Amino acid sequence: MRSVKKLVALLLGGTFLWGCTAAFAVQPAGADSAAAGSQAVQTTVVGRPAPQPLVSRPPAGQIQTLAPGVRYYPISGRTWQGEPLKGHVVEVDPGQALLEVRVAVAGDALGNKETLSQLAARHGAVAAVNGGFFDPSRGHPIGSLVQDGQLLATSEILRTSIGITGRNQVQFGYFAPRVSVRFGSSGPLAVARVNTSPAPGGITLYTPAWGERAGSAGDGIDVVVRPETEKSNRYIVSEIGYGGSPIPGDGYVLAFRGEAVAEAAALAVGTPVILQFDWGPGWEGLKHLVTAGPLLVDEGQPVLQAIMEGFRGSVLEPAPRTAIGVNGKGQLLLVEVDGRLKDWSAGVTLEELAYLMTDLGAVRAAALDGGGSSGLWVKGKLVSRPSDGRERGLANAILVLRQVPVYLNGKRLFFDVPPVVDKGRTLVPMRGIFEALGATVHWDEKTKTVTAARGGRTVSLTLGKGEALVNGKTLPLDAPARAVEGRTMVPLRFVGEALGAAVTWQNAPPAVIIEAKS
């Protein structure tokens, strides 16, 4: 049946789907990107069998549980050339409570770089691997990028993308989102690019993730869009500029270039604006995505399509590698192979990586960025060995979290030590929450007392004590402040409300919601 679907797709010149969560339209390397959505070919199954399994899953006694539903183990073996091979695997049961698989962006904006250890620690991750390809000089992704349902970047490059739904299900396919904009009662206009260099004859969308200013100055018309009022869901044209316009923190900029300038020439300040996104078939429920590739495993079989996805030359030689896959039980596999390290691990080719993933039980899998970017981090430690001798700065990573999400005025907060639930009370690192609320913080090491002040309110808590001082008045605590992994954890609801914020608990999905005036 699946072969018939693929053949029909070929005859009709469209994309094809297989399984519940995979969508592919494979474009031969070097083909015109404008025709990318109109061609589809079957994946190429690797022809020669592996002479022997490259690696195997170790006995249960050698597998370490990092958190409920998250396991880690090292792997070792020999390459087909007899060279040493060592790597690391994290298995994730996606349905576990409070588990979250997400994309993290360096510095929380495009154009930044952080090491995998920095990204993982900053988010309080249980485990992490490097993500998609990026420009090493600028830190911008090479390919598309989605985080928390927000499209951060698009690209005409046609390589396998890895998507993650809100239920931690992984999707593999070619990602070609359709973005359009409407002004007033006019028809939709296609947006050619998002957060990249301006489209020469089209419209490019710039969001706050891009930076402070849109595109290049002086070569077109910029339409600046903001909410009509402070808390409105209705957006309007707030300003007309002429290239390089400032990007508002609560809005975006549409840059019109070349032939598209005529579409913007008649627009006026106050015109209603509606921006629409369509992920395309096969990407329903998408929450996070990175473009990487190539596809490695499909329907339990190794496939070889690196050349079709545009990989050439030394990229095909043995190297450090990172991959992501799903096994027959629906568990997520994060896999890293060390490489270019004599007498330790030579690395693998993409073909060997495909077979390695099937050795580990993958029924679907794709490669992530590799080489000096490859890395795997677990529980506060980089377990992989960087081929450069030190960690490389990355543009993004894929993290595994197990924590209660905390939101402040709609924005997700992350802590290097994740929130702890103690007798029904959520405790968070004191400095992280106080700084997020804009409070000044003082720590008295001698008395183990923290004091925070915000907007004429003062709260003091002493480690281990069941009471606190709020504006000089002693009040009981449901859960005392305590030390966890070197951080002082304080009861979130108590300190939040003591400092003038409203703190509520959300049941489905579990989350803490904080509303605070600036």
Automatic annotation (TrEMBL):
Residues 1-25 form the signal peptide. Pfam families: Cu_amine_oxidN1 (PF07833), NAGPA (PF09992). Gene3D superfamilies: Copper amine oxidase-like, N-terminal domain. The keyword Signal applies. InterPro entries: Cu_amine_oxidase-like_N (IPR012854), Mao_N_sf (IPR036582), NAGPA (IPR018711). It comes from the Bacteria. Residues 246-400 form the Phosphodiester glycosidase domain. The keyword Signal applies. Keywords: Signal. Residues 408-514 form the Copper amine oxidase-like N-terminal domain. This is Copper amine oxidase-like domain-containing protein. The lineage of its organism: Bacteria, Bacillati, Bacillota, Clostridia, Eubacteriales.
